[in-house]
């Protein structure tokens, strides 16, 4: 009897494990949304431009995405609990560096450190939760561990706006420290060790360098192009071609070394997985890209204070929360295909109005559209994430987690660079009139809407259980 009681204490419930993992993951996700609200303030305080400031967001998301392959390997080498603790400490160090920064380069360095820690935290959250649940009821599980995605847009903008108004933008990063400390205590006290499953496997440094080169080159090329809209210059062509070359070399390398690479090409033999990965890449446009542009739009076109920007963005978070629980249940019952297609079309339709809104548009209409925009978000991320793992061998879960998380975050970094480039190409480096600024943001929203609609194509290859029982 005593032995079983001791065993019970050593093995927390899946709900407890999920809560602890969410507590750690909500810190970096809150930081992302808080920082987006502060971009305009930091831009003015450090006398920067939209094109340069996008690196504050892009460097973080890119570092986060590139940390995912390393996290996937580390999950097979060390205790999952230890990995979460170390990554939380790294994130806290990055927050201190960002908070004390008084220049864009210093801030970007801090954001890279934060992103590296965040990539491991968020990857660990998904992989460890799935491992604890033994791959069962993934739709509902994704709803639980996806809670940071819901609460971040609700709490982040409001908290960030209040910090900037009553303190200063440096506190956007200092505020992370007490949250990290709380997450560290909970992780140490409640999270199981999660013994590594494939200890001893060598890290694929070559594959990691090729993946880093691929996406870093593309992002740098896009950013350099947007500076003056000249594609033929060396500063644009060199990083872009370097990125493409790295991708081609990785494909050849992965084909020849299928058991060694970080992301095996065999994963993409599953239509569900391939479609999910493509959709997660595109979802970065709707999440990271839009959340970079929206606060700038609301402050520069609607002339809202940072506090009111946060209040406006609550409407989107409430919309996400309203559909979150039902989406997981519907995915488990009917499959992901038609839920995602409907949500993709809805996301495109609810983004498009911002291409026509002006400073005089009714605030109630803007809030209503933001709420509708939020309703569509849960219908994309939850079904797609759960469908990516459908039918996969449990041994491939770490690699699948690497690929899906990397696609989502690197897609977000590219989306942010593209939308910042669209804005900068219209505004230029000079102070722009309201009409020019409005045109720039409207164009960015049109690009987002079109990019979202493209997601309908891969969504056709997701799972579909509607009508299957009848056959």
From TrEMBL:
It comes from the Bacteria. Keywords: Cell membrane, Membrane, Transmembrane, Transmembrane helix, Transport. The chain crosses the membrane at residues 12-30, 52-75, 82-101, 141-164, 170-191, 203-222, 234-255, 276-298, 304-323, 335-358, 364-385, 406-427, 439-462. Coiled coil: none annotated. It holds the Pfam family MFS_1. InterPro entries: EmrB-like, MFS, MFS_dom, MFS_trans_sf. One of its GO terms (cellular component) is plasma membrane. SUPFAM superfamilies: MFS general substrate transporter. Residues 17-467 form the Major facilitator superfamily (MFS) profile domain. The keyword Metal-binding does not apply. It is a multi-pass membrane protein. Signal peptide: none annotated. It is found in: Cell membrane. The keyword Cell membrane applies. GO terms for molecular function: transmembrane transporter activity. Belongs to the major facilitator superfamily. EmrB family. This is DHA2 family efflux MFS transporter permease subunit. It comes from Lentilactobacillus hilgardii.
């Amino acid at each position: 009897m005593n032995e079983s009681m001791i065993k019970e204490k050593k093995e927390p419930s899946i709900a407890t494990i999920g809560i602890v993992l969410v507590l750690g993951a909500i810190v970096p996700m809150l930081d992302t949304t808080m920082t987006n609200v502060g971009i305009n303030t930091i831009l003015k305080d450090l006398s920067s431009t939209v094109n340069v400031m996008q690196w504050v967001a892009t460097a973080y998301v890119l570092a986060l995405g590139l940390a995912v392959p390393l996290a996937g390997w580390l999950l097979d080498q060390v205790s999952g609990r230890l990995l979460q603790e170390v990554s939380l400490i790294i994130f806290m160090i990055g927050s201190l560096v960002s908070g004390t920064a008084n220049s864009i380069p210093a801030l970007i360095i801090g954001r890279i450190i934060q992103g590296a820690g965040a990539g491991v935290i968020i990857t660990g959250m998904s992989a460890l939760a799935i491992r604890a649940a033994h791959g069962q009821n993934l739709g509902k599980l994704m709803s639980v561990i996806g809670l940071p995605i819901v609460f971040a847009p609700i709490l982040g903008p409001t908290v960030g706006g209040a910090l900037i108004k009553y303190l200063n933008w440096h506190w956007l990063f200092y505020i992370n420290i007490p949250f990290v400390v709380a997450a560290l205590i909970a992780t140490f006290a409640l999270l199981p060790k999660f013994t590594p499953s494939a200890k001893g496997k060598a890290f694929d440094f070559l594959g990691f360098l090729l993946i880093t080169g691929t996406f870093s080159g593309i992002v740098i090329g896009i950013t350099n192009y947007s500076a003056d809209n000249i594609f033929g210059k060396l500063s644009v062509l060199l990083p872009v071609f370097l990125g493409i070359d790295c991708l081609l070399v990785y494909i050849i390398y992965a084909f020849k070394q299928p058991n060694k690479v970080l992301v095996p090409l065999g994963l993409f033999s599953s239509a569900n997985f391939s479609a999910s990965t493509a959709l997660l890449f595109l979802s970065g446009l709707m999440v990271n890209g839009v959340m970079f542009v929206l606060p700038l739009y609301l402050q520069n076109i609607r002339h809202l204070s940072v506090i009111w920007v946060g209040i406006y963005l609550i409407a989107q978070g409430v919309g996400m929360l309203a559909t979150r629980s039902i989406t997981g249940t519907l995915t488990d019952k009917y499959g992901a295909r038609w839920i995602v297609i409907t949500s993709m079309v809805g996301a495109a339709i609810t983004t498009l109005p911002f291409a026509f809104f002006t400073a005089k548009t009714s605030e109630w209409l803007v809030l209503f559209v933001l709420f509708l925009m939020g309703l569509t978000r849960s219908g994309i991320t939850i079904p797609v994430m759960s469908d990516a793992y459908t039918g996969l061998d449990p041994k491939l879960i770490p690699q699948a987690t690497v690929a899906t998380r990397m696609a989502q975050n690197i897609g977000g970094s590219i989306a942010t660079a593209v939308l910042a480039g669209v804005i900068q190409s219209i505004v230029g480096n000079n102070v722009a009139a309201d009409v020019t600024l409005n045109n720039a943001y409207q164009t960015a929203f049109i690009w987002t809407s079109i990019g979202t609609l493209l997601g309908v194509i891969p969504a056709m290859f997701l799972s579909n259980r509607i009508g299957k029982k009848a056959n």
